[in-house]
Amino acid sequence: MGTAAGEGADRATDRGADARVVVLVAGGPDGPRPRVHPAGEPLLLADDLAAVRGDGCFETLLMVGGRPAKPERHLTRLGRSAAALGLTGPTAGEWGAGIALAAREWGPDSEAMVRLVLSRGPERGGPETAYITVAPVGPHAVRARAEGIAVTVLGRGFPADFAASAPWMLLGAKTLSYAANMAALRHAAADGYDDVVYLSSEGEVLEGPRSTILIARSGELVSPPAEVGILEGTTLGALAEVAEREGVPVRRERLLLSDLLTADAVWLLSSVTLAARVRRIDDVTLDGAYPGVDVAGMVDRAVGRA
Ligand code: PLP
Q1: Which long-range contacts (CB under 8 A, 24 or more apart) does 71-75 make?
Q2: Is 271 close to ligand 1, i.e. is its CB under 6 Å away?
Q3: Is the pLDDT of residue 116 over 70?
Q4: Residue 73 CA: which ligand 1 atom is closest?
Q5: Helices 295-302 & 2-13 angle (0-180, nearest 10)
Q6: What would the pLDDT profile of 137-189 be if each residue is shown by its tens digit?
Q7: What is the pLDDT of residues 59-82, one digit of tens each?
Q8: Residue to mutate, 213, 231, 234, ligand 1, most ligand atoms under 8 Å from C-beta
């Protein structure tokens, strides 16, 4: 993965770290017609429920060469998250027009992180707020792709079967309430780790705070099923399509920490970081040998980077 990751790093960083594009998709005076919003100016009312309650949902996708990667997968999941929250949101066509405008504004030259945000809107009443931001891919992602990561294992505190009986937990929806996930990442960083693997209360492997877990085992790729109360990853879905074409089996199976420690390789998958190979889990260094499957290459092909 050396050369590809190195090239990716260059492409990812050539726009300034402060560069931003903002597009309002709904909630403005023009209704659901996308328009560019000055990136340095405030957009939300102070009582917007996204800001005061985290009450909304979002998607983060990669833009490569001015083209959004697998937008239909993200829009499908955003629709599912919105439905779980009882939100309507713009149509896929309206989001698509907003993404196209944001992509034109950003240009084709450097990779970018595109965030689609849907909020319940102002607490005082009014329409849902929907907007898009475009920003450079951060240095964490670039480093994780190229060098891999060390992760720590943290408990999420509820059983793997909780999701089915507790729809109010919104497990499996990508809500804006990410404060606990960000706290987990800070907790990990304070102990010198790059990322986190969450376990259920009975010790099942779940997901990362912003990623899907994938292992290679005897030529197969294995990832926990959505039924354990995790977000269904779009990167995993896109990778599975490529893997199937290339004859590599991808299975969904409940995993324990011991499965990670004995795997041929472990990755965290996500839309912007893509495939980050796990080099260490707590104080156990993983075997760094080539696992027989080029996951980073397959993910690059899945998102149109290769
Ligand atoms: N799980 C969680 C909790 C996430 O936040 C994310 C990414 O945002 C993922 C998994 C991976 O999803 P995707 O591959 O669609 O980025």
Answers
A1: 71/96, 71/99, 73/234, 73/237, 73/238, 74/116, 74/234, 74/271
A2: yes
A3: yes
A4: 15
A5: 40
A6: 999 999 999 999 999 999 999 999 999 999 999 999 999 999 999 999 999 99
A7: 999 999 999 999 999 999 999 999
A8: 231
List of residues 6+ apart from 194 with CB closer than 8 A: 140, 144, 149, 150, 151, 188, 276
* Domains of the chain by start residue, with CATH: 8-137 (3.30.470.10), 141-303 (3.20.10.10)
The secondary structure of residue 127, as a DSSP letter, is -
43 CB burial (10 A radius; 0-12, 13-18, 19+): middle
User: Which of 195, 208, 193 is closest to 156 using CA atoms?
Assistant: 208
- Provide CB contacts within 8 A for 156, sequence distance 6+: 198, 199, 200, 201, 206
Tokens, residue 280? 């260490």
Q: What pLDDT score was predicted for residue 231?
A: 98
**Residue 112 and residue 137 in contact, taking contact as beta carbons nearer than 8 Å:** yes
For the Cβ of 223 lying below 6 angstroms from any atom of ligand 1, the answer is no
Cβ neighbours of residue 259 closer than 8 Å, sequence gap 6 or more: 205, 215, 217, 222
pLDDT at residue 285 tops 80: yes
Predicted pLDDT of residue 8: 40
Task: Give the residue from 120, 119, 130 showing the smallest Cα distance to 96.
Answer: 130
Given a cut of 90, is residue 10 above it in pLDDT? no
Model pLDDT, residue 27:
75
